[in-house]
Design a protein that fits this description.
The chain is of the alpha/beta class and 840 residues long. It has 28 helices and 14 strands. Strand 5 and strand 6 form a beta hairpin.
Length: 840
């Protein structure tokens, strides 16, 4: 080693590695470690945090060894490859982490605003570079180092702004100030992405001879940054992950500054250390506040808070009980104090009438959360209770920190809590159950990255009911407690019809639920006919007056009984609701938007069924907010992308074939973002954990697209001919994805998570590789024919991706995911036809 500083840091890292290994041994043989010094807190009950720190330090150690290598010192391009990988990894890490923050601060389905702003920032960077080409005259090393440093600093500032500015999406159409806040968010969030976009654009445009290798390094770093969110968020919180992204930006600045001067390197490292000093305070000084009015969440009363790979979990006292909050009130569950003596429990009517039908049942609970419902069902002395909970943090705290408070209900001999996704577990389970139960667990979990999940609920689709019925014993029950129970009956009836049941309405009972005031309902589906003894229980006082639908023998007196019976019995009855703008069709995996009760943009409060009106009074109509966001995104993109290009680069509009080039690049932006978002949604069901879906899909697409871009250099002699093959392949692979994917999902859905991740990677990679080729091939062709049009095609591509992220969810709500894929393929083909008509 030539540099004494490198020896010092490597020695220091080795000492810390030994200490961390000692921590692991202590945890294994003695006890968990908890350390607190003022605002500085550290706890490690398992090996995740120490191993994550060890992995990071090992990586840092070998980076130091690598960069102090004499050959490396002289290689300018090697530093560019490292720098562009770091800044791209930082960008994707920040994007994914910010969607997690948005899921807590707001309702989950607004997290997609992040992807729109990221694309807006990238698009604007291309416009600035086109309008001010003199930027390229500055020293490249200093310029990209400066923009990388700006990314790191602005990321921390914007994080603080997001926490402080009280934007409320639900009041966009009623409070003018909220539009101001939305503009601050949209423009502010775009700033870091603008700086990182400038770095990438400058490198790609200044070192054109190495564009394939640079673009590959760019996408490789982005893919790794995306996957890093999985360990980072649980270990250091989502704000902490944003700070790590900021540190990576500063590290990229140091890499770029290697050949620009030692003072710029020192400045970059100084800012990186300064941000690192703030990192321990990520969950205190940068704690995410809940801006939207979600239930009755009160952050100031929180006694426990923890970020996990799926959501943030907070616990607050509530009288003698405690409330477990998911993502700041997006959902909630109650903890009941219990001494652990099951034999002393008296049968609780709160468990549900179904527990009076079966003695000592085998029960499967999907999403038991804090265990209130489990405690109620234990009062009926079930033979076994299996809880399947998606969130690992909930599983951990219920079996550890709060085990004593709830009486260890998940640690009893006849109970078990499994961390898994409900449908995945049921698919691979060989067991059959007397009762399969859910209680209001279909509220959406955020898809970390712009998943656009307007309340998608894969647990209550037609396909889900098939799987439930496959795992019920003869005479067993599906019991669900949630709002919208009449629509639930429509979905279940369709599943029964597909199984050959002639009168599905005779196997379904729906009751209103006094315990759930917001249009709550109790839904009963029996795997067979109801017996007279069971019907007699429904006729008892306290039950009969709550009946909304049931078999004809029950003689239900609800004023809308005839309408409900027709809706459930007639497979086409939902169409009359459709005509007045109410969505009551049987929800499927292709259109899993159960909670979206209206056809898009056809909302009329006077046509909403009576039992759904309380839902709209509380939650409002998301369509208005979507349209406002679409309008603002399109408007700001016109102002900051299209208008500057028109003012400063009108000469490009006089180029031959301009319309066809613009149409081609607009098509690329729109179609790419459509396919990306749909893949994230479709793989959510397969992966189970939404965060894994986002990270695996983005990782696979980015790495594959990087490989495609690298390979596209071989076809630059005939880009039009290559594009004919490539886009045809994209369309065929998309169709194959939707034709073959359900069968592959069915085969592997019951396998372990690593197996499903590997299968997902194999399924996505060929399509992603093809999708990485059209843009560089198009730029190559444009540069050959009309180079002065390049700023315009860059800008129009960015504009398409900005509005496409919102348009995709509108199309999915209206038509379903499969239709969006068909639309994307048609857009790709339209763009190809436009470009093929241009003469070289």
């Amino acid at each position: 080693m030539k540099h004494s500083w490198s020896k010092f840091f490597i020695g220091l890292i080795d000492i810390v590695l030994v200490l961390l290994f000692a921590v692991v041994l202590y945890i294994h043989f003695v006890a968990p470690i908890r350390f607190e010094f003022g605002s500085l807190k550290f706890s490690a009950a398992g090996y995740n945090k120490p191993f994550l720190m060890m992995a990071g330090l090992w990586l840092l150690r070998y980076i130091i060894v690598f960069i102090t290598n004499p050959k490396m010192q002289k290689s300018r391009m090697a530093w560019y490859y490292i720098g562009i990988s770091l800044i791209s990894g930082a960008t994707l890490l920040m994007q994914v982490a910010m969607t997690r923050i948005f899921s807590v601060a707001f309702f989950n389905h607004y997290a997609f605003l992040i992807i729109s702003t990221a694309l807006f920032g990238f698009g604007f960077s291309g416009v600035v570079l086109a309008i001010f080409p003199s930027i390229k005259k500055f020293d490249l090393n200093k310029t990209v180092a400066f923009f990388s440093l700006c990314f790191g600093i602005s990321a921390v500032i914007i994080l603080k702004i997001v926490i402080a500015v009280p934007l409320q999406f639900g009041k966009l159409d009623s409070q003018t100030i909220q539009m101001v806040y939305l503009s601050i968010y949209f423009l502010g969030l775009a700033i870091p992405f603008f700086f990182s976009g400038m770095v990438v654009a400058l490198l790609l445009s200044n070192i054109a001879s190495e564009v394939n290798k640079l673009y590959f390094s760019d996408l490789l770093g982005a893919g790794i940054g995306c996957i890093f969110v999985l360990p980072l968020v649980p270990a250091i919180t989502a704000p902490g992950a944003v700070m790590v992204a900021a540190m990576l930006g500063c590290a990229a600045a140091a890499a770029f500054a290697k050949h620009a001067g030692k003072y710029l390197v020192a400045l970059s490292l100084l800012f990186m250390v300064a941000i690192a000093v703030l990192l321990p305070f990520a969950n205190s000084h940068f704690r995410v506040k809940v801006h939207e009015g979600k239930r009755s969440f009160r952050d100031e009363e929180t006694e426990f808070s923890k970020w996990g790979p799926i959501s943030r979990i907070d616990i607050t006292p509530y009288g003698l009980d405690k409330i477990l909050w998911i993502d700041g009130g997006s959902n909630q569950s109650f903890m009941k104090p219990f001494d652990g003596n099951v034999e002393a429990l008296e049968p609780s009517p709160l468990a549900g009438l179904v527990y009076q039908f079966v003695k000592h049942p085998d029960v499967l609970v999907v999403g038991p959360a804090a265990g209130e419902e489990v405690l109620y069902m234990l009062s009926y002395k079930p033979k076994s209770v299996t809880g399947v909970e998606l969130d690992p943090v909930i599983c951990d705290i219920m079996q550890n920190e709060y085990k004593g408070f709830v009486g260890g209900i998940y640690n009893l001999p006849n109970t078990k809590l499994i961390n898994d996704e409900g449908r995945s577990y049921i698919r691979r389970s060989p067991d059959k159950y007397d009762i399969i139960q859910q209680v209001n667990n279909a509220s959406p979990t955020a898809i970390a990255s712009g998943a656009l999940n307007i309340s998608e609920t894969y647990l209550i689709t037609v396909e889900a009911f098939h799987e439930y019925l496959d795992h019920l014993k003869p005479g067993g029950y599906v019991f669900i407690r949630r709002y919208g129970a009449i629509r639930l009956a429509v979905v279940a009836a369709q599943a029964l019809r597909e199984r050959g049941v002639e009168h599905p309405e005779e196997q379904i009972i729906v009751m209103s639920d006094p315990l759930h005031t917001v249009a709550g309902g109790q839904f009963f589906l029996k795997n067979g006919a109801f017996t007279e003894e069971e019907l007699a229980m429904f006729r008892q006082p306290g039950n009969y007056e709550n009946l909304m639908h049931g078999p004809a023998a029950l003689n239900v007196q609800h004023p809308k009984y005839a309408e409900y019976r027709s809706l459930i019995a007639d497979p086409n009855a939902w169409k009359k609701y459709d005509e007045v703008g109410i969505s009551m069709f049987p929800v499927t995996d292709d259109r899993p938007f159960f909670n979206h009760f209206t056809k898009f943009a056809r909302f009329n409060k006077d046509t909403v069924p009576e039992e759904f009106k309380p839902i709209f009074r509380v939650y409002g109509n998301t369509d208005n907010s979507l349209l406002v966001i679409l309008g603002e995104a399109a408007g700001l993109a016109v102002i900051f992308i299209i208008l500057p290009l028109y003012i400063f680069h009108r000469a490009g509009l006089h180029a031959p074939g301009k319309i066809r080039f613009l149409l081609y690049f607009f098509s690329l932006g729109l179609a790419f973002i459509f396919i990306e978002i749909v893949l994230i949604q479709k793989f959510t069901l397969f992966m189970g954990n939404p965060t894994y879906s986002v990270t695996i899909v983005l990782f696979s697409l980015l790495i594959a697209a990087g490989c495609g871009s690298f390979l596209s250099g071989r076809f630059k002699q005939n880009p039009q001919g290559a594009l004919l093959v490539v886009i045809t392949a994209i369309a065929l692979l998309c169709l194959a994805e939707f034709t073959v994917a359900p069968k592959i999902f069915a085969i592997f859905l019951g396998d372990s998570m690593p197996v499903r991740m590997f299968v997902s990677l194999l399924m996505i990679f060929p399509l992603g590789m093809m999708m990485g080729m059209p843009f560089p091939l198009g730029i190559t062709f444009a540069n050959r024919v009309v180079p002065r049009l390049i700023p315009w095609v860059w800008g129009i591509n960015g504009y398409a991706t900005v509005i496409g992220s919102v348009l995709c969810v509108i199309l999915a709500l209206s038509l379903g995911f499969k239709a969006v894929i068909f639309v994307a393929c048609a857009i790709y083909i339209a763009g190809l036809i436009a470009l093929l008509t241009v003469k070289a």
